[in-house]
Specification:
11-stranded mixed β-sheet; alpha+beta; elongated; 325 residues; single chain; 4-stranded antiparallel β-sheet
Amino acid sequence: MNIYKMQESDFQEVLNLWNEERHNNRFLHKKFNKEAFINKFVSDESSLTKINYVYKENEKIVGFINGCYKNEGDTGYITFVLVKEEYLRRGIGSELVNKLEERFKSVESIKKMEITFFNPINLEWIVPGTADQDHPNAPGLDLSSPSYIFFKNMRFKDVVNQNSYYRLLDGFEYSSDIAEREKALHEKDIHITYYDKSKHYGFEELFRDLDNPLWEEAVMSNVEKGDSANPVLIVEHKGKICGFTGPLTVQESKRGYFAGIGIHSEYRKHGAGKVLFSALCKGLKDAGAEYMTLFTGDNNPARNIYESAGFKIVRSWAIMRKEFK
């Protein structure tokens, strides 16, 4: 059989395949060194099972697939399937996907397969047209890639589309519209400022209203660090926190990072979202960030905020799913 579980002796050859096809611009994801490759695709995690198969022809590995699933979870995640370019259209990719599907079906709790940003194995990718400006997670399958049609033919269905946005921060300043919006907020005693534990209260109520545990974990685990915490921007009304963004972090690549942005439902009518986002961009620029990337759903009204701040779509992605009968 040409397909088998990847062995330790295969690591270097699969790594070479990945990096060679990346060099040929087959996909946007970053190259790996051997240590990073093993940590990403192979190394054990207590709550996560990682699966790797390779396809060998004439004593040469020409295909590779990785998937994973959370223990007791109901979803099998496809991380990546790769076939050497000259071996395309020979059914190798289909065989690899079918093999992974068989493995998922052998786990009683798994009911579906997905290609999604919820995959616990996150793949960094390079913004098109840049040398090394990266984003930490691909939110689905690249719609411009031939792989999209491949998975459609494998009977995967689109769930939702996501757009990745990008902007250089050099020279970022508040627009006249944002300055006017901020002035109008001040007249209502609503301000954009940095969180100060001694002055502000209400994170618990805010996150209960936003109903996003990931945001809550990112912010609260940060503020609990005290003096070593990264700054968090908030919308405050007489001391009450009614919106947030952050924590503001500058990554090694000079990317400005933030976990999310949200406004309490009772305060969205005041138009604080655009002002808060501009404050985020300026705050990250002032902290040394050179660019920002983010993604959001194709139909998410928040895209109006990003686009008004000069962000442009650089890639679109499909979250795809195949449910088991």
